[in-house]
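dumping this here so i dont lose it
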């Protein structure tokens, strides 16, 4: 089984590229899905987050991810504390899903990991694919697509490694700043190399 890392910056369109890879036959294991799973009420992750940050970050019996997100993008210490809780649980969840895929005989697993380079995980993968857009496009997408203020969008981007730095670390780069068809063409070309090589 081949294990491929898929990463990018916030607002770069990783989910779009992951979906295209899924259509081409990849099994996609998504860190965002893992994060939702480890925040589920009654889970060790939920309990640990409430212990660390308090009931103020619970709304309707669930972690208020939006409120928690605002805190951790403003406060480096809070972000470190949250990451210390969530990252090990997310890695465990993803490892479990990847092992299940291997048992089913899946040939290519793509792990969609937003902070792949930030957490030094590139050595785990046979190839790393970066979904790239320039920073101004990231800001524009976060503002128009997700309704964030430009300040919040820039703070989220600043909390990650600069996307230009990631470009030099990836094995493959997909430029997702143009039309969907252009992205799809790049994904197909890279997929051919990944699936065969």
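and the seq i came up w/
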């Amino acid at each position: 089984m081949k294990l491929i890392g898929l990463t990018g910056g916030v607002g770069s369109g990783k989910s779009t590229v992951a979906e295209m890879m899924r259509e081409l036959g990849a099994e996609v294991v998504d860190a965002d899905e893992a994060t939702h799973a480890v925040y589920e009420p009654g889970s060790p992750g939920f309990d640990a987050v409430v212990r660390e940050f308090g009931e103020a970050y619970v709304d309707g019996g669930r972690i208020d991810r939006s409120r928690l997100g605002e805190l951790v993008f403003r406060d480096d210490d809070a972000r470190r504390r949250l990451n210390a809780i969530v990252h090990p649980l997310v890695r465990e969840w993803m490892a479990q899903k990847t092992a299940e895929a291997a048992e089913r005989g899946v040939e290519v697993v793509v792990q969609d990991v937003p902070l792949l380079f930030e957490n030094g995980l590139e050595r785990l993968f046979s190839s790393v694919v970066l979904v790239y857009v320039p920073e101004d496009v990231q800001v524009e997408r976060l503002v128009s697509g997700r309704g964030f203020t430009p300040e919040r969008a820039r703070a989220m981007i600043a909390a990650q490694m600069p996307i230009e730095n990631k470009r030099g670390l990836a094995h493959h780069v997909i430029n997702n700043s143009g039309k969907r068809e252009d992205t799809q063409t790049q994904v197909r070309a890279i997929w051919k190399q990944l699936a065969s090589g």
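The chain has a mean pLDDT of 94.
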